[in-house]
Design brief:
Among the domains are: 3-61 and 84-93, no CATH class; 241-509, no CATH class. The strands form two sheets. A five-stranded mixed β-sheet has the order 5-4-3-6-7, with helices on both faces. The longest helix is centred in the N-terminal third of the chain and has 49 residues, at 14-62. Helices cover 51% and strands 8% of the residues. 23% of the residues are buried. It starts with a helix and ends in a 20-residue tail after the last helix. The chain is an alpha/beta fold. It has 16 helices and seven strands. The mean pLDDT is 83. α11 (379-405) packs across α12.
Length: 517
């Protein structure tokens, strides 16, 4: 029924008719608004239900047991994506739930910001110094302080060096302060800029063309040819420091070694060939600052290891690669990596939930528990704990392996996993003979892992010389990081000092903990 038409039949007062008409229009508008609001509420409710279900699914897969079928970097990448997606879905639910307030996630409290950072204070005073309720003067009773972390992108600036020229009227000579020594004579790059380039390229794995683009955003032209020249010259200047670290490393009695393939450009064929980056690391259970040395070589032959170690004789922790075998015939003592043996059984268990693999993993886990208990002990107490707790477990593991192997058919994955451990047994158990020998090769594998990540960015080494230069610089930056130093701060300070530094005091420039020089 048309209420306006029915009202017109009674010929009411025009003002009343107009008022009723406006009232009717408002009622119709309100009804339409309520209808749309109800529809939106239903849509939001359905979307919240869908998001809640998806959020529960993501949380479930996020916190399931880790799988070793992915590398650590792959797992971290997936976890980063999962965490981002979970937070985004929670934010969407909060936006859609008009009555709910953002809930604090358990265990996600804000960490205090580092004390060493520059604080820029912003004071926010009330608009009035009188009370908005009664009009009386306000009295300060304290401060409510909150902090936010901020960052500036790479900021380029210019150092202007002014050297006044003074003349002697009598003898007609000119005197001026000497030009400060620099890593690159006459170059326009200050140590801070050179440090930024080196750290970005060799620690953050950014190719030079990306650094060129970053500088261009600040309207600073840095040609790749110029950046390449700086990298080459700085690499030459730092090479003696890397060589000295290698000498100090060979003075240690226990070392870790590992290698990773690196594609190297082969200009003649227009393709790449396989080179190798060898990594050597000191033993964390021995006294002294940690040292990490990279050695770039065109191949994987054992002669490269022998050439690097020279006449070194000690305990060497390695995997089962045949290239190391000649060393063990020349007086080097082999240490086997228990993590490699464990990995064989883990792969077996992940593939078919093998009962044999599960039992092996349990027994190996008990050995690592002993190492966890011995982590803070000195060498003597660690040896005593290993002899008392680890040795019996190793004996039991070996007896179980021999007995179980006789029941397993040859050629299968179970037999191969057990044969690897049995064949490597003398090297695997050698660590219990001392309180300073490591149980596995994880320290050097962890140190070489960033190189594997970087390969995805820089794709290949341009030449063997470029590979050796990269190895030397990564040696210094990697060792600085192991020693708890800020690689950027250390390198900048070193590049400032190096041009005038005497070679007899080169050890003072090494990226080692100062208290342990």
């Amino acid at each position: 029924m048309d209420l306006a038409a029915e009202l017109a039949r009674f010929n009411p007062d025009p003002a009343l008719a107009e008022w009723v008409g406006r009232l009717l229009e408002k009622s119709e508008s309100d009804a339409a608004f309520i209808h749309q609001a109800n529809l939106k509420s239903k849509r939001d409710e359905l979307k919240i239900q869908a998001l809640t279900f998806e959020l529960a699914y993501y949380k479930r897969i996020r916190f399931v047991n880790k799988s070793e079928q992915f590398s650590v970097e792959q797992r971290e990448l997936f976890e980063e994506t999962w965490n981002t997606d979970i937070i985004a879905m929670e934010a969407e639910v909060e936006q859609l739930s008009a009555t709910s307030k953002p809930a604090k996630r358990s265990g996600a409290g804000r960490q205090p910001l580092p004390d060493h950072l520059l604080r820029i204070e912003h004071r926010h005073e009330p608009e009035s110094c009188t009370c908005g309720q009664c009009g009386h003067d306000l009295v300060k009773i304290g401060d409510d302080i909150s902090e936010q972390l901020d960052v500036e992108p790479a900021r380029f600036f210019v150092h202007r060096h002014i050297r006044p020229q003074y003349a002697c009227r009598t003898c007609e000579t000119i005197t001026a302060a000497p030009i400060p020594a620099a890593v690159i004579d006459g170059g326009m790059a200050a140590p801070g800029l050179l440090t930024w380039v080196m750290v970005s390229k060799f620690m953050d794995h950014l190719p030079l063309y990306r650094l060129e683009q970053i500088a261009a955003r600040s309207q600073v032209p840095l040609a790749r040819s110029t950046l390449s020249e700086w990298v080459g010259r700085v690499g030459v200047a730092l090479q003696p420091l890397s060589d000295r670290l290698a000498q100090l490393l060979r003075e240690r009695s226990v070392l870790h070694a590992d290698e990773t393939p690196v594609p190297q450009l082969d200009p003649g064929n227009g393709k790449t060939k396989k080179a190798y980056l060898w990594a050597y690391r000191s033993n964390d259970l021995e006294p002294g600052p940690p040292i990490l040395v990279f050695d770039y070589q065109p191949g994987r032959h054992g002669e490269h290891v022998r050439n690097f170690l020279e006449d070194w004789r000690g305990h060497l922790m390695v995997d089962d690669y045949a290239g190391y075998k000649a060393l063990f015939a020349q007086g080097v003592t082999e240490l086997g990596c228990l993590a490699h043996a464990r990995r064989k059984f883990f792969d077996l268990y992940a593939a078919n939930k093998s009962v044999v693999a599960a039992e092996a993993l349990r027994r190996i886990g008990e050995l690592y528990e002993v190492e966890r208990q011995a982590q803070e002990l000195d060498a003597g107490d660690r040896l005593q704990l290993r002899q008392a707790n680890a040795q019996p477990k190793l004996d039991e593991l070996h007896a179980w392996l021999i007995q179980t192997r006789m029941t397993v058919a040859d050629g299968g994955a179970t037999a191969k996993a057990m044969d690897y451990t049995i064949k490597r047994w003398p090297a695997l158990i050698r660590y219990v003979e001392s309180g300073v020998l490591p149980i596995d090769n994880n320290p050097v594998e962890n140190s070489i892992r960033p190189i594997a990540i970087g390969k995805k960015n820089w794709l290949f080494a341009g030449s063997e010389r470029a590979g050796r230069r990269a190895a030397a610089i990564q040696t210094l930056l990697g060792t600085a990081k192991l020693n708890g130093l800020d690689p950027h701060a250390w390198l900048k300070d070193t590049l400032e000092k190096l041009p005038a530094w005497p070679n007899s005091r080169i050890d003072e420039l090494l990226p080692l903990r100062p208290a342990l020089h």
